[in-house]
Design goal:
With 384 residues, the chain is an alpha/beta fold. It is 42% helix and 15% strand. It folds into two domains: 132 residues, Aspartate Aminotransferase, domain 1, CATH 3.90.1150; 237 residues, Aspartate Aminotransferase, domain 2 (3-Layer(aba) Sandwich), CATH 3.40.640. The strands form three sheets. The chain has a seven-stranded mixed β-sheet with strand order 2-8-7-6-5-3-4, with helices on both faces. Strands 9-10-13-12 form a four-stranded antiparallel β-sheet. Strands 1-11 form a two-stranded parallel ribbon. The radius of gyration is 21 Å and the shape is globular. Its cofactor is pyridoxal 5'-phosphate. It catalyses: L-aspartate + 2-oxoglutarate = oxaloacetate + L-glutamate.
Length: 384
């Protein structure tokens, strides 16, 4: 068997969700929102299933969805994308796989920021690439150009950027993105940008895509996710956006991964992108309220809460909370108290930060309140 997979353990998300199911603990670990998502999108999916074709759609995606994605980014991010520069995929993870398989030649080095989404490293290695890690440090998790320069070699070909950054709940500033753009241009790198959280931003902040910065239009793959935009994670509809020379090879990799995506879901997402801007804005405000509710509750439990600018998550700093346990031990104790969270060390491939724990806040108020009550009740057993 391929040792990459034969030696791989269960993902931390599945492992911790399994413990929630086994114990009845409240699951604030895996990132999925309570609620149904926008009804108009669900109704469009059901209607298309019954009234439209259920045979193979075009490999690159339905024309209606490719056009809707391009129009969406014109409205929201000022990007000048053509429909033929959009490739529809079965979720953003498939988009990441297609992009990395298409762009990596064996031996190529790929810059990855830690903490990172756990799919990145096995995908890079399966493509024959060599991951090179750039470590980000709490509490601000800022990109250090000196660390980037120290990690690059003559064999470096790609940079993978998750912005907003899932495990850290941060988003890059315009200054950081301009620095990254100049760095990629200077070293002739292609940037694979995982931007699935682009609409889940808070406090009035606006996501800025790296593809829109000088010198990046021809050297960026922009990846998005309808599952994150509409809080419908089970839909698994994503896309890659890139200039035609890149898009053509991305499509060739995609055709031998999933080939295509259920057509009724594609039609539904196209309708959602065209009509559900108000729902997306309302969801952003609702999620921000959940963030604030959980942050206040965790602080009341004596936990030092780190800033959360985006995503479904916020984290606590155990060391700053006066807790000597590492993150995995703390999460084990927390399960016993009836709440599941995620140790952030799981998002590192090497030299992990071991004193940060991540919680998901896109839950009903009653669920968050019950979790907070359990944490407060168990605080003395959690390592004060």
């Amino acid at each position: 068997m391929n040792p990459l997979y034969a030696q791989m353990g269960t993902t931390i998300f599945e492992a911790m969700s399994a413990r929630a199911r086994e114990t009845g603990a409240i699951n604030l670990g895996q990132g999925f929102a309570d609620g149904r998502g926008p009804e108009a999108v669900l109704e469009a999916a059901a209607r298309a299933l019954l009234e439209k074709s259920n045979q193979y759609p075009p490999m690159a995606g339905l024309p209606e969805l490719r056009e809707a994605v391009a129009d969406h980014y014109v409205r929201h991010q000022g990007l000048d994308l053509a429909p033929e520069e959009v490739i529809v995929t079965s979720g953003a993870t498939e988009a990441l796989a297609a992009a990395l398989f298409a762009l990596i030649e064996p031996g190529d080095e790929v810059l990855l920021f830690q903490p990172l989404y756990d799919a990145y490293v096995p995908l890079v290695r399966q493509a024959g690439g060599v991951p090179r890690f750039v470590r980000l440090e709490p509490p601000h998790w800022r990109i250090d150009i000196a660390a980037l320069e120290a990690a690059i070699t003559p064999r470096t070909r790609l940079l993978v950027l998750n912005n907003p950054l899932n495990p850290a709940a941060t988003m890059c500033s315009a200054e950081e993105l301009a620095t990254l753009a100049a760095f990629c241009a200077a070293h002739d790198l292609v940037a694979v940008c995982d931007e699935v959280w682009e609409h889940v931003t808070f406090d009035g902040a606006r996501h800025l895509p790296l593809i829109g910065f000088p010198g990046m239009r021809e050297r960026t793959v922009k990846i998005g996710s309808a599952g994150k935009i509409f809080a419908l994670t089970g839909f698994k509809v994503g896309w890659m956006c890139a200039a035609p020379p890149l898009a053509r090879v991305l499509a060739r990799a995609h055709q031998f991964l999933t080939f295509t995506t259920p057509p009724n879901l594609q039609w539904a997402v196209a309708e959602g992108l065209a009509t559900q801007d108000a729902w997306v804005q309302e969801a952003r405000h609702r999620f921000q309220q959940g963030r604030d509710r959980l942050a206040v509750g965790l602080a009341a439990a004596g936990l030092a809460v780190l800033p959360s600018a985006a995503t479904y998550f916020l984290s606590v700093d155990l060391a700053a909370s006066g807790i000597a346990l590492d993150d995995r031990s703390f999460c084990d104790r927390l399960v016993e108290a009836g709440v599941v969270a995620i140790p952030v060390s799981a998002f590192y491939a090497e030299a992990p930060v071991t004193h940060v724990v991540r919680f998901c806040f896109v839950k009903e108020d009653a669920t968050l309140d019950a979790a907070i009550a359990r944490i407060i009740a168990a605080r003395d057993t959690l390592g004060r």
